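Subject: for your reference before the review

Hello V.,

The reviewers asked for a structural picture of the protein, and I figured it would be easier to keep everything in one thread rather than splitting it across files. Below is the amino acid sequence we used in the manuscript, unchanged from the supplementary table.
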Amino acid sequence: MDPEHLQQLVSREMPFGKYKGRVLADLPGDYLNWFAREGFPKGELGRLLALMHEIDHNGLSALLDPLRKR
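And here is what came back from the structure prediction:
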């Protein structure tokens, strides 16, 4: 897990869809689960969403809290 990817989760916004403009780390679990079922987008965004899905699914979202405070 690259620390830069974790920083991107708390700073990068969703570029499209129902949650456009919301920080990736703040996306609801149901939305991340939908991507996991239907397929993540290609490229960096898809990799970040997949990482956030894993973090959320395993109940590790609190790990991102210190990064939010930077």
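For the response letter, the relevant points are probably these. Residues 15 and 26 are 13 Å apart (CA to CA). Helices lie at 3-9, 29-38, 43-57, 65-68.

Happy to draft the paragraph if you're swamped.

O.
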